[in-house]
Design a protein that fits this description.
Number of strands: 3
Structural class: mainly alpha
CATH superfamily of one domain: R3H-like domain
Strand content: 5-15%
Number of helices: 8
CATH architecture of one domain: 2-Layer Sandwich
Strand order of the largest sheet: 1-3-2
Helix content: 55-70%
CATH topology of one domain: Ribosomal Protein S8, Chain: A, domain 1
Length: about 210
């Protein structure tokens, strides 16, 4: 016999259970099985109630959404499953283990992303809030369009220079010339400036001694 075998033989065997202890273990096992069966039946009845509630509620075309009270994860999974089997959409909101609940919607009238985001943040949501948000976005869009138009607005000269000479040099050339004219005026380089330059040029020529 090897060393391990001798050690095992020298060890005391665990005491065998008495009949009373065996009976107690059997009862505990039976109690556990009974509770499991009861829990299974309870969840089955819950699923049947949920499906009946969904069918009854959404039978009316006017009903677009149904809210369930807060429940544990197992019950929520049953609601999600029942909603899917009935062709509906389901979303859970709230904190898990605290107040997490489910809302069920029709597929032809799903919640918008703004509603989902608001409810996930725990914020209220109704038609008035939805309308206010839409109006705010429309206003911002109009402002953006107006800013774009102001940026893309073409230069319009104060004078009718373009109209007077467009038939001679073309619309684009006339517009460029008008821009230069306006720029010269803004820096004091108008007609008077041109005349002064001419007089200065003549004076300089007259001051040059002839050969």
């Amino acid at each position: 016999m090897d060393l391990l075998g001798s050690i095992m033989n020298s060890m005391d065997k665990p005491p065998s259970l008495t009949e009373k202890e065996k009976l107690l273990v059997k009862k505990r096992k039976q109690e556990l099985e009974r509770r499991q069966i009861e829990e299974k039946e309870k969840l089955k009845r819950f699923k049947e109630r949920v499906e009946a509630k969904l069918v009854s509620h959404f039978k009316d075309p006017k009903n677009a959404m149904l809210k369930f009270d807060s429940m544990d994860q197992i019950c929520r999974s049953i609601v999600h499953e029942a909603a899917e089997s009935n062709g509906l959409l389901s979303y859970a909101f709230g904190s898990d283990g605290v107040d997490r609940y489910i809302r069920v919607y029709r597929k032809d009238n799903p919640p918008c992303e703004d509603e989902l985001a608001a409810r996930r943040r725990g914020e209220p949501w109704n038609e008035q809030i939805k309308q206010q948000l839409l109006e705010k976005r429309q206003h911002a869009k109009r402002e953006e369009m107006q800013d774009t138009k102001r940026k893309d607005k073409k230069f319009v000269p104060n004078s009718n220079y373009k109209d007077k000479y467009a038939h001679l040099i073309g619309q684009d050339a006339a517009l460029e010339a008008a821009k230069k004219t306006e720029t010269n005026k803004s820096y004091g380089f108008g007609k008077n400036y041109s005349k002064a330059k001419k007089r200065q040029k003549l004076n300089n020529e007259s001051d040059v001694p002839s050969n």
